[in-house]
Amino acid sequence: MIAPRYLFWPLFSLSLLSLLCLLVAITQGSVALSLGQLWQALQGQGSLLNQTLVWELRVPRVLAAFATGGLLAVAGALMQILLRNPLADPYVLGISGGASVAALLAILTGLTGILMSGAAFIGAVLSTVLVFGLAQGIGRVSSMRLLLTGVVIAAGWGACITLMLALAPPQKIPGMLFWLMGDLSYAHTPWLAWLILVPVCFILIPLGRSLNVLARGPLQAAALGVNVKQLERLVFIIASLLTAIAVTTAGSIGFVGLVVPHMLRLVLGNDQRLILPACALAGGTLVTIADTLARTVIAPEQLPVGVITALLGVPTFLYLLHRGRV
To answer: From which domain of life does this come (predicted)?
Structure first.
């Protein structure tokens, strides 16, 4: 059994880093705020402009960015456990593509809020069923076969997205394109993402031991008394749900679910009781930093946050690949 200190101190350190990044993200932007101005605004004091800037613009956006990063990182870690392949994540497997297609359909039909999230979840589940159903075929599922099937399904969803953009009304195309690159400009309701992320993390922590065994292979897990099919089904559903909520909150943001679990395993090991909550914190921190950069690099203009995560994620992944870590 792992000593409590082993679990506590890494998560405590990541929590402090997360709080620091949240604080910096709220104070920085096209209009910088001092800590005193921020404190006054949080108390409902100071200028009305600062109160509006903090409560109506920055706090919802920063919370949405953090929750989105946490959702994507945890979903990526779960997919890597199931497939026992470090290249697995919701984007590579086409899960986010299915969620994106369904979400764009919702946008075209005028659906918003919970209806859009529900459509994205259906799209993510449909993509998951397609990938695992087609990969199984008449033989046993292998991680490589799943990855190849996921790449093909993702390409198909990409073609559907291109077709939808070609047929969409001209006035909706700019918003759809910006959303596909990752956009937190309109993320004014982050509460759904938090209502999913926090309970899921508490659910996954007790499952850490079973996930540790599952990561070694289904046969070994079954021999040690783990209900492999039930656990895999549960993780599939959770990963689909996390991806769907992340996509509806911020659009398509890549590399978070791929890079964050890798980096944490290099530092913290491969115990899922530690890695999964750490992914929620580190993924949230990464997207918060990326969104802050997106808002400030060419302020008052804004960049898509997906561009920033790609610029950070690609060299990191190539470095890990060069060092033989992937």
So the answer is: Bacteria
Contact 193, 69 (CB under 8 A): no
- The tally of CA atoms less than 13 A away on the side-chain side of residue 48 is 0
Overall average pLDDT of the 256-285 stretch: 91
CB-CB contact of 70 with 231 (8 Å): no
Q: Determine the residue type at 157.
A: W
pLDDT in tens, 125-159: 888 888 878 877 645 556 677 778 888 898 999 99
C-alpha R_g of the chain: 20
Q: Are 265 and 205 in contact (CB under 8 A)?
A: no
Query: Span 82-97, mean pLDDT?
Result: 79
| pLDDT for res 248 | 80
pLDDT at residue 257 above 70?
yes
Give, in order, the Cα–Cα distances in Å from 248 to each of 30, 121, 138, 241. Answer: 26, 9, 35, 11
Residue type, 141: V
Question: Cα separation of 311 and 316, whole Å?
Answer: 9
Tens of pLDDT, residue by residue over 53-71, are 888 889 999 999 999 999 9
Calculate the dihedral angle through the C-alpha atoms of 229, 233, 235, 236, rounding to the nearest 10 degrees.
130
Please report, for the chain, the start and end positions of each structural domain, with discontinuous segments joined by +: 47-323
HSE-up of residue 135 (Cα within 13 Å, Cβ side): 22
Coil, strand or helix at 230: helix
Give the closest residue to 175 by CA, choosing from 91, 112, 93, 82.
112
- 12, 124, 196, 216, 258 from 7: Cα distances, Å: 9, 32, 23, 21, 23
Asked if residues 73 and 280 have their Cβ atoms less than 8 Å apart, the reply is: yes
DSSP state of 45: -
pTM passes above 0.70: yes
For helices 256-268 and 272-296, angle between their N-to-C axes, nearest 10 degrees:
130
Which CATH superfamily includes the segment(s) 47-323?
Answer: ABC transporter involved in vitamin B12 uptake, BtuC (1.10.3470.10)
